[in-house]
């Protein structure tokens, strides 16, 4: 009885409004009862309450490729071995769903594109046609990577993953010119349904949908190769075609009892992979498909990548973690810049390996590599923050020098070194990441010798000489404040004047941030916080917000404001982070911490859309709660602490005479605060321009 208590708990949860987190915490990887599987899958795929889309199907089968589609449906159903009566019903529903999917999405069916194989296992759930369609559509949208085609981006990414975990096996396949798309295309198209038995697929998808990780297919494919490693390596003398045939059919050997271990191994390897693998490729592989120049550029970067890239955010955060999760990624940073650049500033945890030595002094380079491996081993043994088995190489971020860094990385890969990655953007990205805090975060930093500082200074000098530079944030936004206090009819013209003539003080004396009365005095914008009685007041019609970024030591943070009820209309729904980040109208997203007045900080994401500032609070297992949706037009001030420039406060309200009426505020600790506030301010300008 006690052993089956989880089933009773699951039944109870399904009667309530449960989500995928609830399902996972109850089931914990156990095989699902057949009677509950349909409901569990619908909850995990978030289609339980979805409308009947098939009701819009006109039952007209007139697609240009209809005869091919019908023939394929019949062929696949024939293989299943059902009774004749069942076959007719399944073929009918199969063709109907496929036809409506093509019409509804304006897609063209192609033989062997994986759609039919993906759909067929769903008929085992014995759901009606509409629910079956909704599940099929959700699986396609959520778990099938975009570009599953020969030489597609998916397979370049998978090769990088294989190279990271098993460079020798990757090299063997590369030597035979066996690219991943030649053997794993059907795996990715159908989530292994094309090459596994129905019982194995059902058991695998039970775990797959509970984990809610679209990248799981990459790690399952990786495990398939690693498990068959010995056989693959023994086929070095076989022909290319023989090896490909063997690889394609490898998942066929899976049995139901193998599935739990198969999925557990996939999760283990996911834990041993830098998170940048998912964050960097999420939108490209699972976002909305587009053929913009930018997406093509990203695609080229992936196909030309030397090894797995690691983001500066992950590297810095990883270095700062004192008690990492067991078996998680721990980096050993290798700084490959020339000695003079390293001596002008570097991370304290970096091991210096001068890339110039490789060509100039090969013997010295070999000695340095041995020193690196010894230092790495010792750092791991003493559990140092600088020690990890995952090697992350760093160049300067300058093309002319990084070619030598790439040669160093290639030399490690040729020796079949596991866990080799390259820092995206090199030292320049670290330098920019720390911004004004670089003096505290970098060792031996010299402004006069640092090439990144020299480059920044050269740009500033050039801008000063040309007198066309954008003014500093403080100056620019104090002038925005002055413009915002003008009458509504003049606002747009005043703003445009500031942008075109950034060094002017604006028309009229006495405006906030401008010098007036001939005395050189600055009139500060007065602000007051709205009282509880005033909180329901509306913005003055046609009056734009006063907007400024202050460089003040902003301590006037009213606890009563943060504890007050949220404004009406603020939605607090639970969302899937992966799905939310794929939203087309997201301009940018910044990982941050939501800082509360009681001192608590919550891991969050600051999302910038064309019209709103959205805050997502992480709940774990890929879920997040939408805490607030703030209209950009309601932001009247952005302030930063003098001593903590990454601690940013957004104030919301509207003009009140010569001052501001503050209705609410949020405070965040944002590692990329400068970039975040710049993007927010730019987007506010777009909103204001449209509104006037």
Automatic annotation (TrEMBL):
Any one GO biological process: retrograde transport, endosome to Golgi
Protein name: TBC1 domain family member 23
Region feature (Disordered): 509-534
Compartments it resides in: Golgi apparatus, trans-Golgi network
Domain Rhodanese, first and last residues per copy: 327-439
Biased composition (Basic and acidic residues): 525-534
Major site of localization recorded for this protein: Golgi
Highest taxon of source: Eukaryota
Rab-GAP TBC domain segment(s): 31-212
Pfam short name (any one): Rhodanese
